[in-house]
Recover the amino acids of this structure.
């Protein structure tokens, strides 16, 4: 029986014990502290990995264990969910490679592997780790982007709630900074909701806005024009001197806008006209 075959059987038969030693050595070498559940998951994964390695080192193929890919993606998911950096995962790969290199050198002497076989197995281990690292980073970026979009959508809903205050009248309190993205959101998400509410008046309150550039001012003007075309009378409140100056610099004629210092005064006017 060849040395590589003997090593193959040894890895398969002792995968669990070897995995436990590997994980413990990585944690010590890298001075990492992880929850017991995460440690158990890593031991199970490396047990599967070592079994896979034992089954394939004689076949000279380029496969990668599916359990490792799944584990890599789960690591990425956990990092995003717990709002941690991907660097915490990436930093573990260096010590892990070192531990596997030490293990392979020990097993190479124990089973009298040829230099060629030792180099081949070492290259396979590093190739698999490279793929695992790539999968982890890609998954982290994909999941983080989806998470970011979901969070931004929640913020946008808070940024632009439509508040009905009496029949035919609603207030749109705008909060924070209006940039091009939020102006686009208002046009494509908020305006359609407003049009379905059968409003006569919409009071757009800018008292919570702390910044608006000239490009965005034009977007806001477009939103007002769309609402007026839908038969909704738009009243603005809370326009600060800085916002008014931005609008004027943008070439927007503020003299034609119906505006009040606050929502209360705007509502009083609307009720008098009704």
């Amino acid at each position: 029986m060849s040395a590589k075959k003997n090593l193959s059987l040894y890895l398969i038969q002792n995968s669990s014990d070897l995995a436990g030693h590997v994980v413990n050595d990585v944690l010590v070498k890298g001075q990492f502290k992880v929850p017991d559940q995460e440690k158990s998951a890593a031991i199970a994964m490396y047990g599967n990995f070592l079994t896979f390695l034992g089954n394939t080192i004689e076949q000279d193929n380029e496969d990668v264990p599916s359990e490792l890919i799944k584990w890599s993606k789960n690591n990425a998911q956990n990092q995003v969910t717990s709002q941690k950096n991907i660097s915490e995962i990436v930093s573990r790969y260096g010590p892990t490679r070192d531990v596997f290199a030490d293990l392979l050198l020990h097993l190479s002497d124990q089973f009298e592997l040829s230099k060629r076989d030792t180099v081949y197995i070492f290259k396979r281990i590093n190739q698999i780790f490279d793929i695992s690292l790539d999968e982890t980073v890609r998954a982290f970026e994909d999941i983080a982007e989806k998470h970011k979009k979901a969070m931004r959508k929640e913020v946008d809903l808070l940024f632009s709630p439509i508040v009905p205050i009496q029949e035919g009248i609603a207030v749109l309190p705008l909060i924070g900074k209006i940039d091009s993205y939020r102006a686009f959101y208002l046009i494509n998400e908020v305006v359609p909701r407003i049009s379905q509410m059968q409003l006569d008046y919409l009071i757009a309150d800018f008292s919570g806005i702390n910044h608006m550039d000239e490009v965005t001012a034009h977007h806001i003007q477009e939103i007002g024009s769309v609402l007026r075309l839908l038969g909704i009378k738009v009243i603005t409140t809370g326009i600060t001197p800085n916002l008014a100056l931005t609008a004027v610099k943008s070439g927007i004629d503020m003299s034609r806008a119906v505006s009040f210092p606050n929502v209360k005064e705007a509502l009083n006017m609307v009720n008098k006209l009704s």
Summary: The longest helix spans residues 115-159. The two ends are 97 Å apart (CA to CA). The first strand starts at residue 163 and ends at 166. The CA atoms of residues 168 and 197 lie 8 Å apart.
